[in-house]
Amino acid sequence: MEKEIKGYDVASCFGSSGCRNVANSCMRLARDIEKIIEKEDILSFLKENVKKGLKSHHEFKVVLADCPNACSRPQIVDIGIIGAHLPGLSEEVCTLCFACVEVCAENAVFFDRGSENPVINYDHCLMCGKCIKVCSVKTIKEKEKGFRVLLGGRLGRHPMLGMEVSGICSHDEVLSIVQKCLKFYKEKAKNGQRFSHILSSVDQIIGDTKILTC
Fold it and tell me: Which of 80, 94, 124, 146 is 20 to 30 A removed from 27 (C-alpha atoms)?
């Protein structure tokens, strides 16, 4: 098994093949992340630190999903990334077709009594972008597009969902976070510890920079 280990795994969902749920494509981001991880030579690091033979669960794992359906399960790996498409309101007159209300599975878009414009509840919004796509007159428009980032997920005997970075991150911000995480991991991990075991909270700090902030 050890001969098959390359030290890391970067995986994506199948959104790029034509999935209608894509909020923001992660294809280019996945390629750039893999280049960064390759330069870090995680395999050599693991060989020096894991004493009883490398196994697949020792690998540093990054999983990307193009939408919040998250079919590739980014919540349970070292770094998970989810495409995000945040809606906002324009000054275009709403036709009251209610397509935005019907398409939102989270009930995050609604109309107050007597209102002529939709209301977006951002506490419920998962940034899937579907309301943006169905609005024919662009009353609902793109407010921001980027990526959600989750850190420190794992399965095993004590499973944990990844902790989410605050805000929507740009392509370059995600790459910066990945670099910080890898640096922190190589400095702190001992004897094959998973990233989640050394990342104790969302307030974890690397130098003067908070890792969980875009």
Answer: 124
Domains of the chain by start residue, with CATH? 2-85+144-210 (3.30.413.10), 87-140 (3.30.70.20)
Q: What is the pLDDT of residues 102-149, one digit of tens each?
A: 999 999 999 998 888 999 999 999 999 999 999 999 999 999 999 999
Q: Long-range contacts of range 24-28, CB-CB < 8 Å, 24 or more positions apart?
A: 24/66, 24/67, 24/83, 24/84, 24/85, 24/129, 24/145, 24/146, 24/147, 25/66, 25/83, 26/64, 26/65, 26/66, 26/81, 26/83, 26/147, 28/171
